[in-house]
Amino acid sequence: MAKGRGGWVISFESPGQAKTQRGWLWDRVKAAFRRTYKEKGTKFDWFMKADDDCYYVMENIREKKIFRFSSKYNPDEPWYLGELVSVGGDGYPSGGTGYILSRAALKKFVTALDAPDTKCRKESDEMEDIHMGACFRYANISIIPTVDKEGRHSLIPINLKDLVPDVGERSNFNKWYTGFAKIKVSSGKECCGPKLMAVHYVSYQDMFVYDYLLYRVKIAGIDP
Asked: Which residue intervals define the domain Fringe-like glycosyltransferase in the entry (predicted)?
């Protein structure tokens, strides 16, 4: 893997294995985390993998107590944040809203990839999040809950339009998420907490809309 102009040029591990662009997802994620660990592994406390069709409220991610000198979730211990879904087995963190790994988790994950007895998948595949979950379990990396005390979720792996409206016919995305979320989630306004951190399947046009509604609109009588 060589660093090119404006980014990295990645040599994949399993040439000929993937038949589609999505088929390279697992190789891409492994390569990115390996490179990040090599170049930045000791320079930061937490590392975030983000999808380009996910909208992130960075203020809420930064404000989450684990990142503010919390002794419970020390970055030198192996933790990760993710929205856990369960489609058989122990479940896996949905790749749509990404993952946030502690410094120790990043090291353990990268080390586990190359361990002689590794249970981490070697060949590339489009189901990158399923393989992340299996590798995290093999490396004994623990998940940090991303729901509040009322059970409202903050990492949403589908679009809000498929979850917040509790009227009409439920979409397939809604059925998947409400059916397989490891921690129960329901349709309607109580699905998600006020400290929402991420929403998946957001078009680039809607990202501008989200940004406008969150940062430009002032509510009379509430906002200064």
From this structure: 42-138
